[in-house]
Structure formats: structure tokens, C-alpha cells
Amino acid sequence: xxxxxxxxxxxxxxxxxxxxxxxxxxxxxxxxxxxxxxxxxxxxxxxxxxxxxxxxxxxxxxxxxxxxxxxxxxxxxxxxxxxxxxxxxxxxxxxxxxxxxxxxxxxxxxxxxxxxxxxxxxxxxxxxxxxxxxxxxxxxxxxxxxxxxxxxxxxxxxxxxxxxxxxxxxxxxxxxxxxxxxxxxxxxxxxxxxxxxxxxxxxxxxxxxxxxxxxxxxxxxxxxxxxxxxxxxxxxxxxxxxxxxxxxxxxxxxxxxx
Length: 258
Known about the structure:
Layout: H1 17-20, E1 29-38, E2 43-53, H2 59-63, H3 71-88, E3 94-98, H4 107-110, H5 112-120, E4 128-133, H6 141-154, E5 157-163, H7 171-176, E6 180-183, H8 185-188, H9 195-210, E7 214-218, H10 223-232, E8 236-238, E9 246-247
Parallel strand pairs: 2-3, 3-4, 4-5, 5-6, 6-7, 7-8
Antiparallel strand pairs: 1-2, 1-9
């Protein structure tokens, strides 16, 4: 089976032991895409790439096959696949990609495949968002800070995903200074009927905006929740209310309820 790097013309890994010794991923994957929308413009701000098995297996099933031995190759493969498929589908907005911080050994070398893929498939790097989830344990916070700094310096957009799902909370903003904050779906879902969720979310959005960080509300499934989140100041929205993820397709969001 070919490696991820065979997807990129003339790619020659160098400078990183894990990159040089990357083994083929014994798992055939593809990508589903879900829009992140700007309701004010009734437009798509970005599409998030979500890993799926080529046989239709969900993300949970795919991720269950990720181990310490294949984490690096899996992470790199997902990046290249997301860029390649999105480009082939004619994406015209931003592309959001999840990454595994524990799979990035040296940011300056591990990013090379992403940059070469972006160049090969004609996707400007300033339209690529890298998301890291707050819920994933980070063994070395200083290492993650280095990744964020390297990615920003290269021109990528950085985001913290699932904000509110972990334990670090607002302290993450002080450490990593992301450009985007994605509110965890558990905070957003049912917020219209939950005073505690409203209070927490209002504080998070207010703090983010004070730091010039844009906020995405994810997991939005009802009109009532959308209206509350919009009133609280969320900038962008993602969820079944607008569109479900579709494999190898860029779904058109539904704004008919507005």
C-alpha cells in the first residue's frame, strides 16, 4: 500500500526520523465534509473535514484503529486526503482539518507534507484551519504552543475545538492564543432551555471577542438554540440545523428557516 507521501508529486521527506520512516497506513480512509456557516452572509465560512472509512465506517470506528505505531502516518494521511478531496470537489472557502498534537514531532518538518499538498492541489495555506480538540490529552503543553506558533507563522489559521469539553477552559486561551474557538456541542445543544449553559457560553464568547478570537458554535440542531447563540454573539455556526456531513461531498447549507 502506498504511503501518504505518494499522494504528493515530488515529495521527499527529510529532517525527521518519523517522516523518513513513515509506514503505509493499513487503513483505507476518506473524508466527509460539514459546512461552518456565516448566517449574516448566508454563506459557508469553511468546510470541516471529518475522517471516515472508505467502506463508510464512522469516525469512531476509524479512530479505534489509531495506535502509537501509526498515529503519525494517520495524522499526515488525514491532512493530505482532506486537502486533496476538498480541492477536487472545488472548495472555494476555508478548509478545517483536525490534527493530533501527539502525532506532531517537529512542527517545522511535520508540516511539510501539508504545505506541499496545499501547493500540489492549489489550496492556499491561508485558507486552511487546523483544529486541536480540548478534550484530547496533551502530554506537553509547551509542545502544543510550539505547534500553534509554527502554524500561525506559516500562514495557517489555528483553532481550539470542543471548547468546554475539557478541564483547562479559558486558561487555554492564555496559553495558545488561537484565532478561532469552537464551542463544544454539549454547551450549544439545548442552550435555549438551560440557564447554566447560557451563562457559561456568554462568558466564553465575551472573553474570546475581547481577545479578537472568532467563535464557532457547533452541534446546533434547533432554531431556538441557534437564535440564543446568535444573540450571545457567536460568529459562525455548524450543525445538523444547517447540514449533516456528507462523504466526499460539499453539502449546501439550509438557510430556509431564517
